[in-house]
């Protein structure tokens, strides 16, 4: 399991909500969550910002979600 998937599951964030908040397709995020694809810096920032909003954690860092 990737850090992103562990974080998402632990916080009860639905994949559709993460996709909507980040602006990326569910299938694209699924490949990233499964570790089949490396995200771009732009994607990392968008996902981090989405997770901050969805988890109500403004101090969340990208390194908590991705192996940088």
Average pLDDT level: 96
CATH topology grouping: 434 Repressor (Amino-terminal Domain)
User: Beta-strand level of the residues, as a percent range?
Assistant: under 5%
**Element order, helices and strands?**
HHHH
The major β-sheet equals: none
The amount of helix comes to: 55-70%
- The best one-word shape is globular
How big is the Rg? 10 Å
The tally of beta strands, per DSSP, is 0
How large is the count of helical segments? 4
Total count of domains: 1
The CATH C-level name is Mainly Alpha
Oligomer: single chain
The termini sit apart by 16 Å
- Low-pLDDT runs of 5+ residues are none
Q: Quickly give the structural class.
A: mainly alpha
| Architecture per CATH nomenclature, i.e. the level-2 architecture | Orthogonal Bundle
